[in-house]
Amino acid sequence: xxxxxxxxxxxxxxxxxxxxxxxxxxxxxxxxxxxxxxxxxxxxxxxxxxxxxxxxxxxxxxxxxxxxxxxxxxxxxxxxxxxxxxxxxxxxxxxxxxxxxxxxxxxxxxxxxxxxxxxxxxxxxxxxxxxxxxxxxxxxxxxxxxxxxxxxxxxxxxxxxxxxxxxxxxxxxxxxxxxxxxxxxxxxxxxxxxxxxxxxxxxxxxxxxxxxxxxxxxxxxxxxxxxxxxxxxxxxxxxxxxxxxxxxxxxxxxxxxxxxxxxxxxxxxxxxxxxxxxxxxxxxxxxxxxxxxxxxxxxxxxxxxxxxxxxxxxxxxxxxxxxxxxxxxxxxxxxxxxxxxxxxxxxxxxxxxxxxxxxxxxxxxxxxxxxxxxxxxxxxxxxxxxxxxxxxxxxxxxxxxxxxxxxxxxxxxxxxxxxxxxxxxx
Length: 426
Ligand code: PLP
Known about the structure:
Blueprint: E1 4-7, E2 10-16, E3 19-22, E4 25-26, H1 27-34, E5 38-42, H2 43-56, E6 62-67, H3 74-82, E7 86-89, H4 92-100, E8 108-110, H5 117-126, E9 130-133, H6 136-149, E10 153-160, E11 182-183, H7 187-196, E12 200-206, H8 217-235, E13 242-244, H9 261-274, E14 281-284, H10 288-291, E15 295-305, E16 312-315, H11 324-328, E17 334-336, E18 345-350, E19 359-366, E20 373-376, E21 397-402, E22 405-410, H12 415-418
Parallel strand pairs: 5-21, 6-7, 6-14, 7-8, 8-9, 9-10, 10-11, 10-12, 12-13, 13-14, 16-18
Antiparallel strand pairs: 1-2, 2-3, 3-4, 5-15, 15-16, 15-20, 17-20, 18-19, 21-22
Helix pairs in contact: 2-9, 5-6, 8-9
The structure holds pyridoxal-5'-phosphate.
């Protein structure tokens, strides 16, 4: 009989016998067929993460807009579009991806502090649902672009509630010192200004306080601050049709214990009900919590290199594929695809890139030899979408697993692809 051992926080990835599987697919087979580094995503894991939000919002008017910056691969967007999601975008390029994946532009919200006139025009012509405006200057420009097109832009103002999300400073966005949103104390003035502009139609309010949030309190605090503002804005005669609470819910990377999406929303909805806003149209913009634990990156050990102070396990994935450790000192679990017997050695798992910052995991206890396959876990979010071609390394291929089927959803980029748009002079 084959034994199955699930990995903590990874219900769709498990050792069956001596082999790591995602759903019904052996990961070693995918690595052999497509090479490494290789991103592999579980469709069931994505839909299960989405289902937790859907359960949380049962009986409410709510739209889930997947924050596609977390993972913008077309087939991933297609999974969420088919499941009824809208999308939170931050560029005209992301809008093109939504349309290419079959997403509904009317369910798109456009966030970001630096939208250009061209992007505003593109989004207005596509008929997106709402612009999350992040400054007073943006209000003026958006109104003028909309007037030129003879349209009215639906807007929601992203307010900065000045709440500490208690997360890494690089992914905290709701504090006074952050570049995002309009300060809480200036929000009413900005709403009055928006309501006076001919090219705008105020439809909502928005906030987003950060990413990888593992506590409920920052959300509850932000909600209180936002609802205080809704009351003030509506008292000034400006109707707020929807309230958007952003994204940010964390995932289990290394024993982290974020609330489940449905449990979080039970508490938030109780507060909304208590304050009389429970029947409003709600929006959220989750990214990481929908895809983060749906992905692994498979990588092959090139060499092991014993050192005086450290042992290194040099693998073929690197910071260009997996930028989070280098950027945020982030932790990803690293496990063997086919565990081997032997004495474990403590390694720093590093890539081939010429930077000391090119590490994937520090002080990991592993039994490995060159040629072995490792799986870097929790790599569905902010990995492929942040990948680069640094050191002229083509970006990895991607596979989507659905039950016992595996679909190649992105071909491996060749070194030639990385310089295909360049030319010599003369
Ligand atoms: N919405 C906005 C405006 C964001 O900036 C982000 C990410 O930083 C998100 C949503 C998604 O956040 P997360 O992936 O943490 O859910």
